[in-house]
Fold this protein.
Amino acid sequence: MTAPSLLRPGALDGCAVVAGGAYAVACAEAGAAIVSPADAGPVDMLVVDGAVAFGSGGFEGLRAALDGAWGEVLAVAERHWLIDGGGAGAGGKLVLVAPRADAGEHAVAAAAALENLARTLAVEWARFGVRAVVVAPGPRSTDDELTALVAFLASAGGEYFSGCRFDLR
């Protein structure tokens, strides 16, 4: 099954995305270039899948999801987004994907922590043009719906969202 097409082919032409797995596939299908954080040139969007680091949960999963997300964000931000010290930076979009509420003990806490990170960065890094959101998949949401939403957030339509949480049911 392929992701529902919310975007026309080529809608993400010229967009450089750092993402893995199905998120990379969905963005690439709409025309985005999938790049490494270490690549030279712009990074338009970073997708961090906190659910992967969270694993089966517990305090270790909670810590791994948050520390992993922050590490990935900081690596891209320092190299690509936070340019000119206090001036206008290159900017970019950040999508944090939370674990599902039923993913294990402390999954809800991990989602809340990722939401807090997204909201804080949306305020603190707005001067650099960084827009951050969190996506919280629900128990009935499909992987296809999740990847389609992430691809949409990479598009021009995603420019309107920052500091918010998308709850999929």
About this structure: The mean pLDDT is 91. The radius of gyration is 15 Å.
